[in-house]
Amino acid sequence: MPDWKITPLVVAMGPQREKSRFTYMHNFGGRVDVPYVAWLLQDGTHNVLVDTGCSAAEYASGIRPDDGPLLLAGETFADVEDVVPLERRLEENGLAPDAIDLIVQTHLDWDHTMNTPSVFADTDVKVVVQREEWERIPAHPLFAGTYSPKATYAAIEAMDFELLDGDQEILPGLRLMVTPGHSPAGQSVIAETAAGPHVIVGMCTIAENFWPAEEVLEKGTYTVIPTGMHTDVMACYDSMLAIKEIPEARILPFHDIAVMEYETLG
Question: What is the mean pLDDT of the chain?
Answer without folding.
Answer: 95
